[in-house]
Amino acid sequence: MRCTNCDAEIAPNAKFCTTCGTPTVAPAPSATPAAPMEGVSMSDPSTFTNQPGQRLDLPNPAVTMRGKGTTGMEYQLIGTTMQAVILELDPGETVYSESGGMAWMSGNINMQTSGRGGGLGGMFKRAVSGESLFLVEYTSQGGKGIVAFASDAPGKIVPLNLGPGQQMIAQKQAFLCAEKTVVMDIQFRKKLGAGFFGGEGFIMQRLTGPGVAFVCLDGEIMEYTLAPDQVLKVDTGHVAMYEPTVSFDIEMMKGFRNILFGGEGLFLATLRGPGRVWLQTMPMMNLAKAIAEYLPKTSGSSGSGIDIGNLLGNG
Predict the structure, then answer these.
(1) In this structure, is residue 242 part of a structural domain?
(2) Residue among 208, 118, 200, 224 nearest 168 (CA)
(3) Beta strands 231-234; 84-89: pairing state
(4) Which of 37, 269, 291, 311 has its CA 20 to 30 A from that of 208?
(5) In Å, how far from its chain's centre is CA 251?
(6) pLDDT, tens digit, 9 for 90 and up, residues 19-49
């Protein structure tokens, strides 16, 4: 550092010039770059920006998983609570889903609606079970293409990488999409009591490999591995998926007071090992019941019938 008056050399941290006595001037502090926002990488091109006159850049959802299917199809799962799966197809590759399942796709994806999966018999079983009568095939033409499928409720999209002949039993309406090599069928419980009284447990979906299929499960997912003859009793709506080695049945709740005052319903699902089962924390039926009280009333009250107090959480 040098004196501003006589240009003499000044020792570091000196208060004044030893030659002419002129007080030293402290150098201006160097500017420090602004700290990035917590949890956001400033070098990330998907970082949110919204400046006047500039383009709007929104951050993309987090990619939670990437993978590849049997036919070469590549996929990525995006999001955490409201998830979607984006499939990248090579020319000629085909995936399929139930009618109405697609969220978005590139312009070179060809859609073809059919009764794939058992012909008239498969269509009849889907009609009886309340499923869509038709399945839609998506084929990429003239280059790579993308097609995306989104979950319609909070939960998880789970990829099932099935080997030849490998099967998985999932809850009704869990199927989202699959490679064309995967066979999706409806599975009915052999005991009619399970259907008449067990609710969700009577009609299930059976997926058979080879190939990758995607299923939507509700809420968070808990996995259990059951030993031979080990039993797990579950409210029927919480059964999300299980291996075909697991025996599924319905039993009546025991105890008069349990039936009247337990609030758990009359029946429970019994899952008997060996095999793995996956349970879901928030079945769609439970979610529907939870929000039903906030919906417009259908009684003869005047006005819109919306309970404003409940809607705002003041009920």
Answers:
(1) yes
(2) 208
(3) unpaired
(4) 269
(5) 31
(6) 666 666 555 444 444 343 333 333 454 466 6
Tally of residues, the chain: 315
Please report whether residue 312 resides in a domain: no
CA atoms within 13 A on the CB side of 275: 16
Total count of domains within the chain: 1
84 phi and psi angles, rounded to 5 deg: -145, 155
Residue 185 is part of which domain span? 63-282
d(CA 149, CA 114): 18
As a whole number, mean pLDDT of residues 261-276 equals 77
Closest by CA to 137, choosing from 175, 84, 179, 81, is: 179
CATH of residue 72's domain is 3.60.160.10
- For residue 45, say if its preceding peptide bond is cis, omega within 30 degrees of 0: no
Residues 251, 232 contacting (CB under 8 angstroms): no
Six token digits for residue 157: 């999209």
Output the pTM of the full model. 0.72
Asked, for residue 185, whether it belongs to a domain, the answer is: yes
Mean pLDDT of the chain: 78
Q: What is the largest CA-CA distance in the chain?
A: 106
Q: How many helices (H) and strands (E) does the chain have?
A: 5, 20
Average pLDDT of span 144-155 = 94
How many CA within 13 A on the CB side of residue 160? 33
* Bridge-based pairing state of the strands 175-179 and 94-98: antiparallel
Contact 26, 15 (CB under 8 A): no
Task: Specify if 23 maps to a domain.
Answer: no
